[in-house]
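Shift notes (night). Ran Heme ABC transporter ATP-binding protein while the centrifuge was going.
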Amino acid sequence: MTLQASKLTFRRNGRTLLQSVDVVLEPGSLTVVLGPNGAGKTTLLNLLAGLERPHAGDVWLGSQPLASMDSLERACRLAVMTQDQPLDFAFGVEEVVTLGAYPLGLGRVQERLHCQAWLQRLELQALAQRDYLSLSGGERQRVQLARVLAQCGEQTMVLLLDEPVSAMDLKHQHLCLQQLRALADAGAAVLVILHDLALTARYADAVLLLKQAEVLAQGDMLDIMTPSNLSALFDVRVEVSRVDGMPRFSSSLADDAVPP
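Came back to this:
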């Protein structure tokens, strides 16, 4: 199922947070959004997810306007992981993950098997009976990702994730992005906000660069992640080399200035 947005514009308190942005998320593709802090990345994800209404522009999920879908219908087709996942109750880890499967309407036995599979895929089996509030930040983030992925059924074909691996160690960053890559390869349309250029190059099919509320560039990963594009995006000097056909990145302040 394709998620498509046209001319998205969003303002808050007189400030434009997103200006005339077009996005197409195709089945079978993993798109990464890159940009500096405050560029509009989270605003874009919130609009694509229907968590905010645009001041201009439209979002379509398949052949339907997203705004016309009720919350259950949307949850059966689109799964979202925001940056902030407030949970102040002492739920067990398995209970948290099971919350994600609710829209699928599975029977109790099938639901538990479904959620246990995601616990295993994200290496959470040993934590399944732990109190969620006792976990580290990276562990909590992995549990929340498992909850979102447990929402994926036969109809859930779009995934939107805002910095889903930012608190994780290197091993689990790769483990979780491998799962997202596998879902895309199986036909899902996946959008992920990241800050890591190396992870982007390793897992993305397409890249969208956002700066100051507007699209700087978007397209195929290898075409977009060039020194000129990335230097302009982050206002630093970015150099790109190739190892076995894959880009490798280094960066420095443009003037090599050393702060006093």
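The mean pLDDT is 95. The CA atoms of residues 3 and 61 lie 5 Å apart.
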